[in-house]
Specification:
Its cofactor is pyridoxal 5'-phosphate. This is Phosphoserine aminotransferase. This protein has two domains: about 240 residues, Aspartate Aminotransferase, domain 2 (3-Layer(aba) Sandwich); about 100 residues, Alpha-Beta Complex (Aspartate Aminotransferase, domain 1), CATH 3.90.1150. It has nine helices and 14 strands. Helix 1 packs across helix 6.
Length: about 375
């Protein structure tokens, strides 16, 4: 990484690969032989069509997405899909199951209450969202339209390492993958819908990706706004209205980069290595640093930790920033620290953080 860039440990918007930013910079004013910037292009012209089609096809390659699934590039963030999914898949009286392992799952549940009849069949709230339930213990409603999970809870650092089998009549599992999207291979065929805001692993905020099994499209409630209707977007290849063109272009550059670097298996290995050295540093600090999350379900992407002496937190954050490691403050709802180590965080960034943490411990422990 260049000397003048910081190591950005933010949870999102988050660090992007430097090579991608440089490529975008080199094409900022003039994209290929178009004579204009991607920002200035018609979304219906052949140049932008080639950009969005390549982005989709590279994402399909990365995640091995079959033709049974539509890939939609939408707007409004994952939060918009908290409403979009029940509106598209449920009638108002339909029951739906939620496993709530953190704040994002809880928000998705609360939004769904407006459009269907969701129930929380398991919540980790009383244990401060540090666990994933045993799947045997889940009492799923066989009449539920779908089972919803948040694959990685960004604030709490809790990640599903495998996925529950939905018991509902159509066997539909839906996952918010905003904060671990494209961080590792996923068997898409296990899901009815996968959705993700782009601004962690794959691009700028504003783009929202929805991967949906095609047979689930076409049942939206009558009140569904046209902008939330998956059928409209699928029929129009995400070009019903003006899409977030530049953001989609940036996601495309990231997908290309992920493929060039060996695909998601490679990234999973790199992400495991980064997470391992960080969690080891926390666990080997004799309680000076602490991560409350169950070891077996700790996130590879978001690593929350606290200090035994909380009054040292601001000093920790300030000194780290002086060494160009920024955005280490935990989410305002949980406090402490959080290091987000998405795909684009180089191993060198985590090694530098770990060296800093050991030094900080030596001085204050
Ligand atoms: N879901 C998860 C897991 C998230 O981490 C976030 C956001 O930051 C969201 C949903 C909300 O995403 P957005 O801000 O794109 O609506």
């Amino acid at each position: 990484q260049s000397q003048d860039r910081v190591f950005n440990f933010a949870a999102g918007p988050a660090i992007l690969p430097e090579s991608v930013l440089k490529k975008a910079e080199s094409e900022l004013y003039i994209w290929r032989d178009s004579g204009m910037s991607v920002m200035e292009m018609s979304h219906r012209g052949k140049d932008f069509l080639s950009i969005i089609q390549k982005a989709e096809s590279d994402l399909r390659t990365l995640l091995n997405i079959s033709s049974d699934y539509a890939v939609l590039f939408l707007q409004g963030g994952a939060t918009t899909q908290f409403a979009g999914i029940p509106l598209n898949l449920c009638k108002p009286e339909d029951p739906v199951d939620f496993v709530v392992t953190g704040s994002w799952g809880d928000k998705a549940f609360k939004e769904a209450q407006k459009y269907c009849k969701p129930s929380v069949i398991w919540s980790g709230k009383s244990e401060k969202y540090t666990k994933i339930p045993s799947f045997d213990a889940l009492e799923q409603n066989p009449g539920a339209k779908y089972l919803h999970i948040c694959a990685n809870e960004t604030i709490h650092g809790v990640e599903f390492k495998n996925y529950p089998t939905p018991n509902n009549k159509d066997g539909i599992l839906i996952a918010d993958m905003s904060s671990n999207f494209c961080s590792k291979p996923v068997d898409v065929s296990k899901f009815g819908v996968i959705y993700a805001g782009a601004q962690k692993n794959v691009g700028p905020s504003g783009v929202t990706i929805v991967i949906i099994r095609k047979d689930l499209i076409g049942n939206a409630q009558g009140i569904t706004p046209v902008m939330l209707d998956f059928k409209i977007h699928a029929e129009n290849n995400s070009l019903y209205n003006t899409p977030p063109c530049y953001g989609i272009y940036m996601c495309g550059l990231v997908f290309e980069d992920l493929l060039e670097q060996g695909g998601l298996q490679e990234f999973e290995k790199k992400n495991m290595k980064k997470a391992e050295i960080l969690y080891n540093t926390i666990d080997e600090s004799n309680g000076f640093y602490r991560c409350p999350v169950d070891k077996s379900v700790r996130s590879l992407m978001n690593v929350p930790f606290t200090l035994e002496k909380p009054d040292l937190e601001s000093e920790f954050i300030k000194k780290a920033a002086e060494e160009k490691m920024v955005q280490l403050k935990g989410h305002r709802s949980v406090g402490g620290m959080r290091a987000s180590i998405y795909n684009a965080m180089p191993l060198a960034g985590v090694e530098k953080l770990v060296a800093f943490m050991k030094d900080f411990l030596a001085r204050h422990g």
